[in-house]
Amino acid sequence: MAVIKKPKDKVSVPDGLWKKCDSCQNIVYKKELHENFYVCPKCSYYSRLSAMERISQLLDKQSFSEMFSDLEAVDSLSFNDTQKYSTRIKHSKTKTNLKEAIIAGTGKINNKEIVLCVMDFAFMGGSMGSVVGEKIARAAEFAVSKKLPLIIISSSGGARMQEGMLSLMQMAKTAAALAKLSEKGLLYISVLTHPVTGGVSASFAMLGDVIIAEPKALIGFAGPRVIEQTIKQKLPEGFQLSEFLLDHGQIDMIVERKDLRNTLSKIINLLR
Predict the structure, then answer these.
(1) Does residue 11 sit within a domain?
(2) Which domain holds residue 22?
């Protein structure tokens, strides 16, 4: 007589242990992804980082001190498209646990003090409104007053259309603030991550004394599709990717995420 075995209890797998790669669609163990700086170990795709994840990767532990955290966007134009601007701001705050699309503060890299600004694409596409421009300008002015290097990590779709002309004014404002840094002979390093476009690429992102990009980051003013439709021509392969910009002298170097902290440290040692 056949013996019927009791089925083993089903082993439950906790949620949140795995993540599907946005590029190759392979399932990756989250711990492995974290240890690899959120770069897919199967296809080398660079996942986007939040501003706080970026700060954690770059700075010495517990060295970051946030500045200008009281600044928050207001709907001064009462702008309304498919949603009210005020509603979009509220949703982004809830989604990211941030007050704006950028965090500014001071910190240390290998015990060297710096001023750091980090954009977060998850907050309305990292768009630059009045508060983003104000934080960058204040950070540059603080760097001048303390004679410290300034590093800005950019990730943005450009100017924030919900603020109209006020957002476009931030291009000149940030450029003027960075000019003061240059006049004092102080170091400004711009780090470009995927993507950096529009008014951000047309202002502070491309004004660094040293411009660094992550591999395969999209960098440009208008997107490739818009340019092709405008000039009625097919663009070169890889156009606007960081590798193309490096070959054509628009950026200084491409640095893998795992090497960025030490690279920044070496540049600060050499140029500050």
Answers:
(1) no
(2) 18-47
